[in-house]
Structures are given as structure tokens and as C-alpha cells.
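Anyone opening a protein record will find just a pair of labelled lines. With that in mind, the following record should read easily:
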Amino acid sequence: MEIRKVGIIGAGTMGASIAELFAYNGFDVVMKDQNMDLARSGYSRIQKILSDMKRINDERPEKEISRIEGYGLKLTEEQKEKIRTANRSNVDVDIILKRVKITDQYSDLSGCDLIIEAAFENQEVKNGIFSDISDLSEKAIVASNTSSLSITEMAGHLKRPEQALILHFFNPPYLLPLVEVVPSVYTSDEVRDLAFSLISHMKNHRENMVPVLVKEREGFIVNRLLIPLINSASELLDAGIASAKDIDIAMKKGAGFPMGPLELADMIGIDVVVDVMEVLEKAFGEMYKPSVILRRMREAKQLGRKTKIGFYKY
């Protein structure tokens, strides 16, 4: 089976970013949401990602020239042109956008070789989506982007549950390369291997994508390790031990993290963090219980970057 056309269900932050990633890699993409306003909003997100990446790529050659000359070396015009050629942007916004179609109809996903569900983190919602696409997906691989929920339960709502698995991308997938590939108890070896190979041959705007194979268990690898860190950082803040800024600085400069746990929580979304924690708490107990401050922030809609306020103001 060859993957040529990809359907994305959900045009929110992750859905749009995953759609952009596949379009950037040359796939035709159909992105579906509940109505056309939401679908158009997702399309605008894709436009912004591509515009931002093109701008960054276009600035890279001159920054590299400045970096080299900052050491006291004087480059010739010929040398500068070689650097510009080697670092020339490969982001053609118009061509990539032409690969993306938007819709509010499930029927437009027919003919997709891979369908990825990227709705919000709720088991019943995801189960319902799998039921809705069961007739469309008899030949397609059906994946969920869930970060914590049961793919075996979702797959049970398909006519061919062996076609389903998890492809868990990380936000933002156009910069972060990891994908957790999680088969269900039903998933065929062929589907598992094809999905793994597909991700292995993709790249984002920074580097090649990296799949890891994970057994189905709540939280998989990254969230099982990351969520307690975010929780502990929020408890330190709530207890007045240190400011959000200093907690993040400590983890970046002391532990070598590229991003602090609280700014990362803001990027992920406080609501998503708490949703995942509640799933993990149910599965593994008290150590994953969301802190008081995280619950209050969710209730107050202080969800991070997407609401312009979380642990930081944006």
C-alpha cells in the first residue's frame, strides 16, 4: 500500500500543524472540521506556519554570513553566494498550500490512504469519530494523535480494527521530530510497519522525523516522564519557592532542557496538560494528580499561548 493522500480530522492547533507537515512532505491533504469556519481557521494556521518558516529560512544565510564574519573572517562575494545557495529556502508557500483542501464533510475523506484523528483529548469523542468514518476507512490506515487514550477502544468502532494505530506527534510537529507509534491489540504487523516507515521517510522544517515504537499504555513514553515534571514545577510556583521564570531558567541552565517546564505547559495548553494528567491519574494513581494551580488555571481559561495568558502573558 502506498500513502499518497492524507485526511486530517480536526483543524485545531495539532490538526493544522500535522496537515502542514504532510503537505510540506508532498502529500495531498484533506483537513476536516465540524464547520467551514473552523476549517478555514485551521487553513490560516497552516498559512502562518509556512510564512513563518519561510521567513526564518530566508534569514538564515545572512545570519550565517554574519556569524562567520563575527570571528574576524572576511568572506568574498563568491563565498557569500555559496552560503546563500546552500541555505536557500525550500519553502514554497503557494505550492504547499495548493496541496491542502478543507471541508466539513466526512465524505470528502473518501480516497484517503491515511486518516489521522486530531480532535480534543476525550475518549468518547474519539470513539465517535472512528464510528463516523468506519465506512470510509476500509482501505485506509486510521490513526489517532491521542497522547494518552486507548487506541484499542477506538479501533473497536471500525469495521477493520486491524487498520488502526496511534501516531502521536508533538507540538509543534513542524519543529519537533518525534512521533510515538503505538499499535493496538488489533493492529496488523503490515500497518504498524508501514506507518513506521512512512514517518521515517518524512522531515519537518528542522530535521528528519523520528518514529519510536511504543506498547499501548496510558501516556506512552514522553508524557509518562514529562507530566510529573510539569506538575512538580507548578507546585513549586504555587508554594512560592521560585518564580515561573526562575523555575524555567533552572531547568534550562541546570538540566540542559531547551525549554522550561512551565513555558512548555503554556505551549502545550494547560487544558491539555490537565486532561492528560487526569487520564494518567486514573491509570497510575496519586503521583499524576493535577496540582491545585493547574486545575484553577484550567477553570479560569488561563490556558497558555492560545488564550494569551498562562504561566506567562503573551
